[in-house]
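Recap from last week: sequence in, structure out.
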Amino acid sequence: MTEAGLLLALGCALLTNVALLCKHRGAVEAPSVTFRHPLRSGAALFASKWWTIGFAIAFVAWALHVAALAIAPLSLVQAVIAGGLALLALPARHLFGISLGWRELAGLGLSAGGLAFLALTAGEHQSSGSYEVGTMAAFEGGAIVLGAALLLGGTRGDAHPHGGLLLGAAAGLLIGVSDVALKALAETVPMDAISILSPWTAVAIVASIGAFYALARSLQLGDAVEVIVLSSVAANCAAIIGGVLVFGDPIGSDALGVAARSAAFLAVIAAAALIPAPRPAPERA
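Predicted structure tokens:
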């Protein structure tokens, strides 16, 4: 079952990359997203053909993601998706004409290396899927507070030199919050449909809505590849940590496995730090 979950996660990664590139093209064509007018901003985004196409592709990727979460450990699914960032180079260059420099290629390579390490250590590890409500609430609450802080920092607008990256990180963190909630629901809803009336359903919905607007605005403000990578890494890191802390996903069965999976996790973080290229200082009047 773990192997099937990995394949679903890899398909999710590829479709997610294509969806984000489509959304970027649609976001830059749409009017600026304003958080004070969410309905108007949402309607303007969906009026863009490319945003709508990206949203449809993202929905298919989300369905693959949920299926992967149902049969594989959360931390492993998210790590495979994080490693799948290496697939971003293909659609970016060949479908959207986005040139990638050495920093971007090196960062994507680090993500691919993380995927390779995880493939070596996947084995037959399975998480129990059970969790303590207090631990779940503490993790989700802390992640939401951090995401809100990043969101407030990024909404300072064009005057903030890294507003797009802050909003991208906020979007990714909120997606991670939603993923952890979905994992909890995936463990109970198939056996008890009424369990969908859960606080975690509300958490997943609210976090997803916040991520929707934060991601749209970040794609308008920031570089496409930088925002996509940072938001993806933030989402996957949050979900990987949630899988370990909340659901008890194994880090490894021996010292070598722990070292390999830790290296994969660090490689993904290093990729996020490497890809945003330094910007020249603005000229003073």
